[in-house]
Amino acid sequence: MKNETLTFDKLPEAVGYLTEQVIELKKMVSELQPPPSGKRTLIEIEDACRIIRKAKATVYRLVQKGILPAYKKGKKLYFYEDELLAWIENGRKETSAQSYEEMLAAMQNGVRHKPKFRINF
What we know:
Blueprint: H1 11-32, E1 42-44, H2 45-52, H3 56-64, E2 71-73, E3 76-80, H4 81-90, H5 100-109
């Protein structure tokens, strides 16, 4: 099917060829993606600090106050990565939906102009 002139009579053959190519591409893409697993990733405090971008002392304080989800076994703290990401997501602030005109008007209202100084003789 390469470099052939496509005519109306060859259209069904071309569609079949394209369908085969799409199926092959889908297989290749699915092989590249990791299989979805029901496993949750258990991480230690160093990784938790990296994920939430906080210092170790801050993480310990958040866990102590019950703000950050964690699990303790012996003297070690463990975290689930998905719970930390959900914790971050829940803290997201809502953005106000402003139209372009509203934002432009708000910016223009905040602009101060120098007073014009004229000397009349």
